[in-house]
Amino acid sequence: MDMKVTRKTILIVDDEENNRAFLEALLTAEGYATLQAHDGKMALEMTLSHQPDLILLDAMMPVLNGFELAEQLKNNEATKIIPIIMLTALIDRTSKMRALQCGVEEFVTKPIDRAELWIRVRNLLRLKEYNDFLTDYSHTLEIQVEERTAQLLTSYFDSMFSIMRAAEFRDKETGEHIHRIAFYCKELATDLGMDSNFIDTIYHASPLHDVGKIGIPDHILLKPGPHTDEEWEVMKTHTVLGNSILGHGKSTSPFTIMGAEIALNHHERWDGTGYPNGLQQEQIPLSARIMMMSDVYDALRSKRPYKPAYSHEHTLQIIMQGDGRTQPEHFDPCILNAFKKLANRFREIFDEHSDGAD
Fold this sequence. Notes:
The chain is an alpha/beta fold. Helix content is 56%, strand content 7%. The chain has 14 helices and five strands. It is rod-shaped and about 100 Å long.
């Protein structure tokens, strides 16, 4: 274990100049650097600016006495680890208890014994050095953990985007759809008051919603006209396939867990008329309810083999009033209200990330 070897600095705080000079002579003879303060206020300022390794503190001083100064230093995050030796002629139990309550580590009774002072200074500086080492080591570990976490997230996102690109390659008409979806979901989750972890997770997980289309045969997925009933039943299996591809409860990543949840449930409807399981209301995970709102808006705005691209205004009319295929009761009422507030933001996102589908 390597610890830094540097010249230690000791702050001497005493209102008597002769006392400060005597202590300085003792300490410099032992190789220490010294700073001096003649009252508590000056000592507080010097401690904050110079961060000494140890403080020799006289108990009785004007302006700010030793007890008050010690209490302030120990209550300050920037100075609380600096050890304090209180120099005092007060030997009664009450004074010592007060000093201990203020956070003072050691006492030296006046008149000062050189050997006693040297032992207490040496021991506290060794303890401070070790504490500094532990603090630096802990900080280094935190940085290493953060770096490793960032590497794992980068690797994870690379894998996710590879899957998404594969799905997009199979269904080219979606274009920028997966990117717009992430922004829609983030806006809705934020407006609903979700915490930052949920918002970040749905932003990264929502583009995986249609990954199950990888498993749909080309003649069905890419069919230019309407699907037969049998073909439609096959198309609907992309929800279950997506859930299976993303782990089906076996993943430990929050992004993949939510991605699988969304993939399976993003075609469920609030009124229970969706698929694959006919879930209703809060049986449907919140992430999937948010995704369903986002997906419907973007699908209506985009050109598909079975429909033209609709304008923003026409899309709002369909969502709010219904057109037979899409009905207001399909959506979670709270999410529908949030969408109404965010409608202009949805339009901006679609325009900013348009692939020419409009």
